[in-house]
Design brief:
The structure is a single chain. This protein is an all-alpha fold. The protein is 79% helix and 0% strand. Helix 3 packs antiparallel against helix 9, helix 13 packs antiparallel against helix 21 and helix 17 runs antiparallel to helix 21. Belongs to the major facilitator superfamily. Sugar transporter (TC 2.A.1.1) family. Pfam families: Sugar_tr.
């Protein structure tokens, strides 16, 4: 469920935190090498603040996951307690995507205007209000209002969290730390799936408030993105934030100069409007950012995620057991993807992931084809389970997280807010389309549905090979310079 400003610049802050081994025994040679590595002088304190800031930010990602997962285990409880019809509950389940689209539209401008921390704080407040409205609702109206509020918070968080992480992280850790965004989303989904079977839906809504409270408290402790501060003209705060992130003994002069030089260049560019995204100089970044989000969503993830119980039931596999296995497999594989992000690189993970999605869809298509034609019926449930697990494992490995990481890397600061909103909107629109059409497609042809998704994932492999650059180990400025040419 997957921005445009110069998050890349934020990553340039990462230049200084390159952690290649410093070989040399004299202090002078160490300092010289650290300077050449753009501030490889990160002390333990600086790493602690980067990790703490990332942890606080991904509490928003966990909150995102709880919002996504809430409707699945609560359907019977809500409909029976409030007397909702199936159509009324469908509105409740889908209206979160509408709120998320609104959040996506405004996320770039909001985070540019009030800062990355301010945007996270605002989205947390929306989520708190939404959860409380859901918890104490007596009918469909307050229930939908609450879901709309949490959806808006999701839309903003889906943009600002990866942007913030990219702007504070050292470049050698940027991919792995940014992947924690997706890891915490799937952790939130899995947590909600499991806890939702143990507690009432009202209690589950109250539990959803907890990550918001942690995020709100943590935002009081961590620094604002130094790149946003520099862009906003807060020079003193910019230096203090960078110092806090890189450590009191780190040499931040070179990184400061690079950021300021880059911003001076951006000042000569006009303020970006939506049509400016389609200028030739930004076209490659836009195609990569939007294209990855299109393939991420239209490859079928939300159809399979939202209706996995129905898929298992249709294939004759116990839905409760299948759903628990599905929930449990996401977290460790997403964690593995995070570990590999800055080792294997973005493109290899995308290739492996898209290939796995293709294989999973073909397995599911085969199982439903066999069922429809009454061939080897005893193998259908096992084949369907294998297909679902292959699909969700492959998605968790790469296509879930990498598009958001690359999105945070490829857009220059002057268009990041506008581009980020647009890309996030595309992602949420795709999420809504796939989740809305899945049941209609399944009623048309169960195996045809998964063949359609397989075709999309095959196109994704070709798109990755042709268009997506490798961004591992490169500063944001380097990535931008290679992709955005006038």
């Amino acid at each position: 469920m997957t921005i445009t400003e110069e998050v890349e610049n934020s990553n340039s802050g990462q230049h200084e935190s390159i952690t290649e081994p410093l070989i040399g025994q004299r202090k002078i040679s160490i300092r010289k090498e650290a300077h050449q590595l753009e501030g490889n002088d990160n002390g333990g304190g600086s790493m602690f603040m980067v990790f703490l800031s990332t942890f606080v930010a991904v509490c928003g990602s966990f909150e995102f996951g709880t919002c996504v997962g809430f409707s699945a285990p609560t359907q019977s409880g809500i409909t029976s307690d409030l007397g909702l019809s199936l159509s009324e509950y469908s509105v409740f389940g889908s209206i979160g995507n509408i709120g998320a689209m609104v959040g996506a539209i405004t996320s770039g401008k909001v985070s540019d205007y009030i800062g990355r921390k301010g945007a996270m704080r605002m989205s947390s407040i929306f989520c708190v209000v939404g959860w409380l409205a859901v918890c104490f609702s007596k009918g469909a109206v307050t229930l939908d209002i609450g879901r709309l509020c949490t959806g808006y918070g999701m839309g903003v968080l889906s943009y600002v969290v990866p942007i913030f992480i990219a702007e504070i992280a050292p470049k050698h850790l940027r991919g792995g730390l940014a992947t924690l965004n997706q890891l915490m989303i799937v952790t939130g989904v899995s947590f909600t799936f499991i806890i939702g079977t143990l507690v009432s839906w009202r209690t589950l809504a109250l539990i959803g408030v907890l990550p918001c409270c942690i995020l709100l408290f943590g935002l009081l402790v961590i620094p604002e993105s130094p790149r946003w501060l520099a862009k906003a003209g807060h020079q003193k705060e910019f230096e203090l934030s960078l110092r806090k992130l890189r450590g009191k003994d780190a040499d931040i002069s070179q990184e400061m100069a690079e950021i300021q030089d880059y911003l001076q260049t951006l000042e000569h560019l006009p303020k970006a409007q939506i049509l400016d995204l389609f200028q030739r100089r930004y076209l490659v970044s836009l195609i990569v950012g939007v294209g990855l989000m299109v393939f991420q969503q239209f490859g079928g993830i939300n159809g399979i995620c939202f209706y996995v119980s129905h898929i298992f039931e249709s294939a004759g596999f116990p839905s409760a057991l299948g759903t628990v296995i599905y929930a449990c497999i996401q977290v460790p594989i997403t964690g593995l993807g995070a570990l590999l992000m800055d080792k294997a690189g973005r493109r290899p993970l995308l290739f492996v992931s898209a290939s796995g999605l293709l294989a999973g869809c073909l397995l599911l298509a085969t199982s439903f084809y066999m069922q429809a034609h009454e061939m080897f019926l005893e193998a259908v449930p096992t084949l369907a389970l294998t297909g679902v697990l292959a699909y969700v494992g492959a998605f968790s490995m790469g296509m879930g997280a990498v598009p958001w990481v690359i999105m945070s890397e490829v857009f220059p600061l002057n268009i990041k807010g506008t581009a980020g909103s647009f890309v996030t909107l595309v992602n949420w629109f795709g999420s809504w389309v796939v989740s809305f059409t899945f049941n209609f497609l399944m009623s048309w042809s169960s195996y045809g549905t998964f063949l359609l998704y397989a075709a999309v994932n095959l196109l994704a492999i070709l798109f990755i090979a042709k268009m997506v650059p490798e961004t591992k180990g490169r500063t944001l400025e380097e990535i931008q310079a290679s992709m955005n040419r006038s």
